[in-house]
Design goal:
The chain is of the alpha/beta class. The protein has a single domain (2-169), classed as 3-Layer(aba) Sandwich (Rossmann fold), CATH 3.40.50. It has helices at 2-12, 41-53, 55-67, 73-83, 88-100, 126-135, 151-154, 156-169, and strands spanning 19-23, 113-121, 139-147. A three-stranded parallel beta sheet has the order 1-2-3, with helices on both faces. Helix 2 packs antiparallel against helix 5 (88-100) and helix 3 (55-67) crosses helix 4. The relative contact order is 0.19.
């Protein structure tokens, strides 16, 4: 989510950004012809219904899935604790915007160098990362030794290391 919004911010004020790092980005969460974003329309309806029906149960499950670190349940618990502080109606509104956004037609506008950082295992399908790499002119893929959508929490040292290399060298390698 944040990576794509940082791309939008960069497009709004390109003179303020020289290089950019995204984590687990996807130009669109909804799959369609020729694009795998990770969710079908029926799955999104189920996702939104789950929030409406029992936001705490949904948040608990989603926090653990987003963390994808079953051997470290305290990480999912921590994210759940944060998520349950958000009013359900606000969470649903934000997630509707995020999950239904489609930024694919804006990617070719981005001229800055971008590290398209992904984890080895994420809820964002690898096809979405491959799509980003093929659509961002100066995008360079980087895969870090971490799992989940929130590696800045579960593998901060890996994220920081990859960012330092990228910002110092302009290359993820």
């Amino acid at each position: 989510m944040g990576g794509m919004f940082s791309i939008l911010a960069t497009l709004a004020v390109p003179e303020r950004v020289e290089r950019l790092v995204t984590l687990g980005g996807s130009a669109r969460c909804l799959s369609d012809d020729g694009y795998r974003g990770g969710f079908s329309q029926p799955a999104l309806v189920t996702f939104f219904d789950a929030i409406r029906l029992d936001d705490l149960a949904w948040a608990s499950g989603f926090a653990r899935q987003a963390m994808s670190n079953p051997d470290r349940p305290e990480l999912g618990d921590s994210v759940f604790t944060s998520m349950k502080q958000v009013r359900p109606d606000i969470a649903l509104s934000v997630l509707r915007v995020v999950m239904q956004a489609d930024l694919r037609d804006r990617l070719d506008e981005l001229k800055q160098a971008v590290s398209l950082t992904q984890t080895k295992g994420d809820i964002v399908p690898i096809e979405a990362a491959v799509y980003l790499h093929g659509s961002v002119e100066n995008g360079e893929p980087a895969v870090i030794d971490a799992t989940g959508q929130l590696p800045h929490i579960s593998a901060a040292a890996e994220v920081i290391g990859a960012m330092k290399v990228w910002l110092r060298n302009g290359s993820a390698a």
